[in-house]
């Protein structure tokens, strides 16, 4: 039986985490999922060049998709901590590090780990 490389494991995990957050935000349309796949392809090359960055892939894919969505559709994910009066997007922290979280800088709080937005927004469960 072939074993899956750490790179492929990290890429599959990143894909699953970001897709879970897109589902939680009810924005997992086919064209949006394509943005995830584009990021995965780019990050595969990136980690092949810098193998030590494998732990950072999930946060980077989340940021890539967030940036692509901003260009095409608008802010995502919207902050659930501040309510509808002040619509703004969450940010991924650390920008380059392991264990990425969605953070609201205005309220100064960690909202959820990347992949766990459903728990913070009341969106679709990530099971």
Give a written overview of the molecule.
The protein is mainly alpha-helical and 127 residues long. The chain is built from four helices and three strands. It has helices at residues 6-24, 30-49, 57-72, 117-121; strands at 91-93, 101-104, 109-113. A three-stranded antiparallel beta sheet has the order 1-2-3. Strand 1 and strand 2 (101-104) form a beta hairpin. Helix 1 (6-24) runs antiparallel to helix 2, helix 1 (6-24) crosses helix 3 and helix 2 crosses helix 3 (57-72). The two termini are 27 Å apart. The mean pLDDT is 91.
Major beta-sheet overview? 3 strands, antiparallel
Radius of gyration: 14 Å
The helix fraction, in percent, is 40-55%
Q: SSE string, helix = H, strand = E?
A: HHHEEEH
Residue windows where pLDDT falls under 50 for at least 5 positions? none
Q: Which outline best applies?
A: globular
Euclidean distance between termini CA atoms: 27 Å
What is the number of helices? 4
Average pLDDT, all residues? 91
Portion of residues in beta strands equals: 5-15%
Oligomer: single chain
Strand order of the largest sheet: 1-2-3
Strand runs, count: 3
Structural class: mainly alpha
């Amino acid at each position: 039986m072939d074993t899956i490389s750490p790179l492929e494991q990290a890429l599959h995990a990143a894909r699953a985490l970001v897709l879970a957050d897109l589902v939680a935000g009810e924005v997992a349309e086919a064209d949006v999922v394509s943005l995830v796949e584009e990021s995965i392809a780019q990050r595969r090359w990136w980690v092949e060049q810098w193998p030590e960055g494998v732990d950072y892939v999930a946060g980077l894919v989340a940021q890539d998709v967030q940036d692509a969505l901003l260009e095409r559709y608008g802010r995502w994910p919207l902050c659930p901590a501040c309510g509808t009066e002040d619509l703004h997007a969450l940010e991924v922290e650390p920008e380059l590090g392991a264990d990425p979280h969605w953070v609201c800088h205005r309220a100064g709080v960690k909202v959820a780990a990347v992949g766990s937005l459903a728990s913070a927004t009341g969106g679709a469960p990530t099971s």
